[in-house]
Model the fold of this input.
Amino acid sequence: MSKIILITGASSGFGKAIAEKFAAGGWDLILTARRKEKLEIVAHDIEKKYGVKTLSLIFDVQNKEAVFQQISNLPNQWQAIDLLVNNAGLALGRDSFENANIEDWDTMIDTNVKGLLYCSKAVLPYLIKQQGHIINIGSTAGKEVYKDGNVYCASKHAVDAITKAQRIDLLQYKIKVTAIHPGAVETDFSLVRFKGDATKAAAVYAGYEPLKAEDIADTAWFVANTPKHVCINDLVMTCVAQANSMYLHKDA
Ligand code: NDP
Ligand code: 8X3
Done:
């Protein structure tokens, strides 16, 4: 029987690349996101290319009722989930604390922190049965706070702390819990952060070679395929131009 992975935020970026990587490895996929049309194209293309099964679930991870309603009522054949990848997330704005937008703060906390908690709690009964694995997508922003990163950094520090808490509390169920903390990766992330300003988004990745979504997918695949007794706890990865949140070398 094929293994099953549930990926939140699979309509673009890391989530889409992780879906493709695991499909290539023969896993069946539960894919979630808000944008139905985009997600269905991802699912359709993957089914066609790799011949695996997919199930698309459309919900906003901020909506507690929708998360539990959709995940708790999975068809029987989709309940044996081996791996949850908590990937859905975003940054909104890059503004000094006094200028930052409070609605942006709410959305980041509700998505990156509360959404991750809801999805973890909803999937957990299935993971306990499978002795499964949770991979949380953190960030270098969850390791060091940078200027004007305030609440995004706080939300990713929370992901770091929740990952540690899950690992401790779920030891008794033999569930592996891993955090992957990437530095700069060129996806739609900055376009979302700068609310559609493509010039500002492109400037983030100019003058160096950033990571690609496929690099994160390769790492998730490695982490998910270690021997049964091995758990990779915490993994920080950057491109060679970047040391951490503060030090990134750009060519002139
Ligand atoms: P993208 O913008 O390409 O992808 C984000 C994904 O999250 C989309 O599929 C989006 O789907 C989904 N998503 C966002 N908000 C919600 C929501 N409220 N409910 C459900 N799904 C949601 O960005 P990335 O792939 O780069 O980002 C993925 C994760 O990686 C995020 O957690 C981000 O913080 C983290 N990260 C990104 C880095 C980078 O440099 N790119 C570096 C380190 C971490 P939809 O809009 O269809 O709902
Ligand atoms: C995304 C990377 O540097 O924008 O988490 O915080 S950064």
Q: What stands out?
A: The chain has one domain: 4-237. The pocket of 2-hydroxyethylsulfonic acid (ligand 2) is lined by residues 139-141, 149, 183-184, 245 (CB under 6 Å).
